[in-house]
Structure to design on (283 residues):
């Protein structure tokens, strides 16, 4: 199975990357954009998709600071 | 006592860590990351600074799966001393041997400077720090628990928190106290030539667990 895993900072955790992007936007003429968050995306092919969640918990994401979402492709 | 200093691909402070162990009067030897045992006689471990496995994914995320880390976990479980410095601190957090996580510095800049730390004995330690991902984070309830248990080992003095760590936390220990991690580099502060010898105290504080 092909899948895409989206990993994003947990809500409420200071996300300086998102803030930096957000602050840069008005200078480029993009007004009215807020709540920017920067995460990671991992694409993979899994022979045992039932173990994907475990893989995310153990390696791809750090559950203390990040949420993840598995999207089958 | 004899310290084993781990060496991962991408470690860069293992030589200074070896030297620091010797300066405080102990023996030390390198332990390669693929080794499944720490070697005979080793009764403490330093997980040194650097960029293990290129810090890919998250700092410390890959290194925690190396064979040598299983031996470190066994030593930690039996109460032996384990000191994680900078990247080593990140590795110990990722491995679940220490609470919390290290995030990108608040200002998104790599910081490299001398900082004052406070230990829980009331000492002020002048120790250099150099990192891009050193912002200690833990959820509020975990922080309260760490403080109640005396698990905050080192704090940045007022005005010295260069990375935005919550509650000025520079280093923590496990409940038993034998596993300690911190972002600043005590191994770079053991010789008067480089301005401070306060780093020796960080190594000496763990010797009692050997």
């Amino acid at each position: 199975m092909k899948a895409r895993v989206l990993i994003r900072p947990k809500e409420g955790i200071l996300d300086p990357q998102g803030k930096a992007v957000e602050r840069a936007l008005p200078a480029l003429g993009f007004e009215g954009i807020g709540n920017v968050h920067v995460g990671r995306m991992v694409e993979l092919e899994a022979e045992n998709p039932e173990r994907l969640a475990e893989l995310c918990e153990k390696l791809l994401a750090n559950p203390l600071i990040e949420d993840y979402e598995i999207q089958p492709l | 006592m004899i310290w084993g200093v781990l060496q991962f691909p991408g470690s860069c402070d293992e030589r200074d860590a070896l030297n620091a162990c010797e300066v405080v009067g102990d023996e030390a030897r390198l332990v390669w990351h693929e080794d499944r045992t720490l070697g005979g006689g080793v009764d403490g471990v330093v997980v040194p600074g650097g960029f293990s496995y290129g810090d890919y994914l998250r700092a410390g995320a890959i290194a925690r799966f190396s064979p040598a880390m299983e031996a470190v976990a066994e030593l930690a479980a039996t109460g032996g001393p384990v000191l994680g410095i900078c990247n080593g601190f990140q590795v110990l957090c990722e491995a679940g041997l220490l609470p919390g996580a290290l995030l990108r510095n608040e200002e998104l800049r790599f910081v490299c400077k001398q900082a004052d730390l406070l230990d829980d004995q009331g000492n002020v330690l002048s120790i250099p720090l150099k990192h891009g991902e050193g912002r200690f984070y833990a959820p509020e309830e975990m922080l309260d628990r760490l403080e109640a248990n005396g698990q905050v080992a080192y704090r940045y003095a007022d005005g010295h928190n260069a990375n935005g760590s919550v509650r000025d936390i520079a280093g923590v220990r496990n409940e038993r106290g034998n596993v300690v991690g911190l972002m600043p580099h005590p191994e770079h502060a053991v010789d008067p030539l480089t301005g401070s010898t306060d780093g020796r105290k960080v190594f000496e504080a763990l010797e009692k667990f050997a």
About this structure: Chain B has one domain: 2-209.
